[in-house]
Structures are given as C-alpha cells and as structure tokens.
Amino acid sequence: MQYMLLLHADENQFAKMTPTQQQEGYAAYLAYADALREAGAYVAGERLRSASTATTVRVKDGQTQVLDGPFMETKEQIGGYFLIEAEDLDVALAWAARCPGARHGVVEVRPIWSM
Where are the domains of the chain? Predict the structure, then answer.
C-alpha cells in the first residue's frame, strides 16, 4: 500500500539556520531518501517551494476563483513530501519516525486511495 508522508514545519526556521546547519539538514534528507530507496519503499519525494508561492483554486457557484498564497494562517506549512510503499500503517509510521522532518516539525501519514 502507498502512503503519503506530508512534512509540516515552520518554513521560516530554515532561514535562521547557519549555512552549515542547512547543509547538514539537506544531507539528512538525502540520506533518508537513500534509505527509502535501498529498502524498496521510495516512490517519490520532493521539497516544496515556500507557501508564499502557493496559488489556491476553488470553484464556487460555477465560477473559478484563483487566490495567491496559502489560504490558512498556520505556524507550520507543508514543506515537502515522500510517497512511499509500505506493507501496512505500522511500517509507514516507522518510516515517518525516521524522517528528519519529524525532529523539527510534524510528519503526517496518509494512506493513498488508489483511483
């Protein structure tokens, strides 16, 4: 079964890190992705651009509305994701706990509903 690991964190914290800390953080994510690949669990994953670059689309009463930026004000934003293959939820949760994002934010684990 596939699971989406959504990485939530305060994106402003990255800018407060030293260049060395930023490089170490990046290296931790690369190592995590490599571990997923070696285990055959990796399907996809990417870092997302800042929430300020988001565009929100909704259709209300048949009219399309396009809004700049995120629509909700939160302290944490979705900063990236990993799509993984896991035997069950327990395995997916174990991978989420190993994710570097779990140390400085939250990793939301959601099963994929295949279409």
Answer: 2-111
Domain 2-111 fold is Alpha-Beta Plaits (3.30.70)
> How far apart, in whole angstroms, are the C-alpha atoms of residue 97 and residue 16?
24
User: Using CA atoms, how far apart are residues 88 and 79, in angstroms rounded to an integer?
Assistant: 24
CA dist 1 and 85 (Å) reads 6
Distances in Å between the Cα of 92 and the Cα atoms of 52, 72, 82 are 30, 27, 11
**d(C-alpha 34, C-alpha 95), whole Å:** 12
Predicted TM-score of the model (pTM): 0.87
Return the percentage of the chain with pLDDT > 90, whole number.
73
